Every structure is written in structure tokens, then in C-alpha cells.
UniProtKB/TrEMBL annotation:
Originating organism: Microbacterium radiodurans
Protein name: Prephenate dehydrogenase
Single GO biological process annotation from the record: tyrosine biosynthetic process
NCBIfam families listed in its UniProt record: PRK06545.2-3, PRK06545.2-4
InterPro entries noted in UniProt: 6-PGluconate_DH-like_C_sf (IPR008927), NAD(P)-bd_dom_sf (IPR036291), PDH_C (IPR046825), PDH_N (IPR046826), Preph/Arog_dehydrog (IPR050812), Prephen_DH (IPR003099)
């Protein structure tokens, strides 16, 4: 069991956040925030409607229980979307003058609910870290899930500069990148980049339920990539989608128009313009992917080398060891394993300038190269 006492945590660096931080909701995000702050030596108080969840988060070292006389400088609400507004209202009332933020994935609906109740939102600032994992709960929490991730902060005309600095300081302490947006801008953005992709992945994966077993044996990495997030929790996503319905519907309607256009082109693929319509669809997808930030999006910067890896213990470690000896940095990795095969394929993304050296060096060390970029 992890020692949950405050003196057990040795700060890795100076924190912008000082004083006690109260976190309401000890699930994945709440506990992860707690772990990250405690690594910086910040005092963290946890609260949760579930005594079992709260006890588990404390046992893992995400924070401590509330004590008489606690005076938080910041309150983070990390509860499901359908109770976010209620908990924010309660915390604002219980701790007047203390900055309250939340990390819900929908921002406009809670804000409008609070406004309609006439609640003073002077010290409330909505926020949303674009981070998470396929599995939830305190047991899955990690201090590093926010590192390098965007953290949206929704200020308004009433937001005080000192309050804004506290919330943005939290994001920076956790290694995230604060981005200011309005609640409406945020919800429209996540509808396109998060909520609709979840639905598309779920719809595609749902086609597998009645698929012949023989068809599923042909599954490759492409279908795994496009359906990975289909394993998400239905209970949470019903809340998220319901709270952000209008922006999601707008994107879905446009996507449905695109799907109908592709279907029409395929009904008569030899008809004039049909092939161009299909080519334009794929090309536009290429252009969209290239706009995505990070290594996955900027795929023109890297080349892919596919290496055959035997399905025995230690082979992947040996591959990376050999690449390290060659001085080759792997920018990204994808693994594919066909059912029944005694080997897998490791697709390594590297900068173009090291392709020749990497291939030659790996072959000298006995590795079988399944595919290399064209010269």
C-alpha cells in the first residue's frame, strides 16, 4: 500500500500551486490530478460520493481525507457530467471566495445551468484537460496523463486575473498546455475531435457483432486503430453526448452527407466523376490527417520500417536495444499480430535520414525487414 501521508511526497520541482487543493471526485481525472500535485508537494484533500472510491484513491496516495479547519485555495470538481453543475454550486456555496474549476468534457451546459439558477459565478472557471485513458477509476490514475496535453480554460468577462492565474497554474503544474476558449468554442471543438470519433468508432465496431467469425480473422491494424476507443464506458458517454447534443448533431449531419456522396459514387463506380469523387474523399482525408498536431498527424516527417518480430519473450526488447545501439530514435511504434501467426510486425516510424542506416544495421543483426520506404 502506498504511504498517503503528505511528508511521504518529495517535490520534484517548485509548484505554482500553493496551499491546499480540494478535489471532488476521486475517479481517473480527480485522482490523477491528486497524484501529480502531491509529487510537487501540494497538500491534496479528496472527496467522493462513493466511500469505496474515496478510500481506494487515498490508499493509492492521491490525497487525504478532509480535516476540520481545511481552507482550500482551489477546488477541482471531477464528477460525471450529469452532476457537475450541482457539485459546482455546492462547492461555491460552501467555500465562498475560493476559486472553483471543473474538468468535465462539456462546458456550455453546466455553465448555462448555473446561470439559470442565479448562482454567483465570479470565482468559477470551467476547464477541461484533454487527457484520459480507456479505463477509469482511481486504480487507473496516473500523474503523467496530462503532460503535453491541451487544457482548455473558459474565462468570461467576470473572471479575475488572479483567479485565472490559479487555474492556469494548475494546468502548468501538471505539465499541460493551457488554452483559453469560450464554452461554446470548446464544445464545438470536442464534438468534432472527440465526441463524433467516439460514435464513429462505436458504430463501426458494432458491425462486428453479427459478422462471420471468418471475417474477423482478417482483422488488421487499421481496424484496430479506428475502433480502439469503442471500448469506452457507455454510461459516461450517454451523459457526454446528451450534454453536447447540438454540436455533435451538426458534425454527424455533415458526415452523413459525405457518406451518402461516397455511397452514390460506389453505386456506379464507372460513371463519369465517380472515381474522382472517391479519390477526392481519400485525398481530403490525407490533408486532414496532416493538419493534426503531433507525430501521428505530421506523417510526412517520418518514414515507416516494418520489422518481423518472432512471438517469443524478449524479442521486442532486443529490437529496441539494437536500435539504441545503432543510435536510431523511434518516433512512433505500431504492433500488428495476425491470429494464428507465430510472429508479429513492428511498424517503426523514424526520420527519413536514418532509414538506410537503420535497415542495414538491423539486417546485420539478423532482423527480417518486411517493408521499407521506397527510395
Amino acid at each position: 500500500m502506498t504511504d498517503s501521508s503528505s511528508d511521504a511526497v518529495r517535490p520534484a520541482r517548485a509548484a505554482r500551486t500553493s496551499g491546499t487543493v480540494r478535489i471532488v471526485g476521486a475517479g481517473l481525472l480527480g485522482s490523477s490530478i491528486g497524484h501529480a500535485l502531491r509529487l510537487l508537494g501540494v497538500d491534496v484533500v479528496l472527496d467522493d460520493a462513493s466511500p469505496a472510491q474515496l478510500s481506494l484513491a487515498i490508499d493509492y496516495g492521491a490525497g487525504r481525507t478532509e480535516a476540520p479547519g481545511d481552507q482550500p485555495v482551489l477546488i477541482v470538481v471531477a464528477v460525471p457530467p450529469d452532476v457537475t453543475a450541482d457539485v459546482i454550486a455546492r462547492e461555491l456555496s460552501r467555500h465562498p471566495g475560493v476559486v472553483v474549476t471543473d474538468v468535465a468534457s462539456v462546458k456550455l451546459e453546466p455553465y448555462l445551468q448555473l446561470r439559470s439558477r442565479g448562482i454567483d459565478l465570479t470565482h468559477y472557471i470551467g476547464s477541461h484537460p484533454l487527457a484520459g485513458r480507456e479505463r477509469g477509476g482511481a486504480i487507473s490514475a496516473r500523474a503523467d496523463i496530462f503532460v503535453g496535453r491541451p487544457w482548455v480554460v473558459c474565462r468570461d468577462d467576470e473572471t479575475r486575473a488572479s483567479d485565472l492565474a490559479i487555474v492556469e497554474g494548475l494546468a502548468l503544474d501538471l505539465g499541460a498546455m493551457p488554452i483559453e476558449m469560450t464554452p461554446q468554442e470548446h464544445d464545438e471543438a470536442v464534438a468534432l475531435t472527440s465526441h463524433v470519433p467516439q460514435l464513429v468508432a462505436s458504430l463501426l465496431a458494432g458491425r462486428f457483432v453479427a459478422a462471420p467469425e471468418g471475417s474477423l480473422r482478417l482483422t488488421g491494424q487499421g481496424v484496430r486503430d479506428t475502433t480502439r476507443i469503442a471500448a469506452s464506458a457507455p454510461e459516461l458517454w450517454v451523459q457526454i453526448l446528451g450534454a453536447n447534443a447540438s454540436p455533435v448533431v451538426a458534425v454527424l449531419d455533415s458526415l452523413a452527407d459525405d457518406l451518402r456522396a461516397v455511397s452514390e459514387a460506389l453505386r456506379e463506380p464507372a460513371a463519369p466523376g465517380a472515381r474522382r469523387a472517391l479519390a477526392d474523399t481519400i485525398r481530403r482525408g490525407n490533408e486532414g490527417v496532416e493538419r493534426l498536431p503531433g507525430k501521428h498527424g505530421q506523417n510526412r516527417r517520418f518514414e515507416q520500417i516494418v520489422v518481423r518480430v518472432d512471438d517469443t519473450a524478449g524479442q521486442l526488447g532486443r529490437l529496441f536495444g539494437d536500435l539504441g545501439d545503432l543510435g536510431v530514435n523511434v518516433e512512433d511504434l505500431r504492433l500488428e499480430h495476425s491470429p494464428g501467426a507465430q510472429f508479429g510486425l513492428a511498424e517503426l516510424s523514424v526520420v527519413p535520414s536514418v532509414v538506410h542506416e537503420a535497415v542495414a544495421g538491423l539486417e546485420e543483426r539478423g532482423w527480417k525487414i518486411a517493408s521499407v520506404p521506397h527510395a
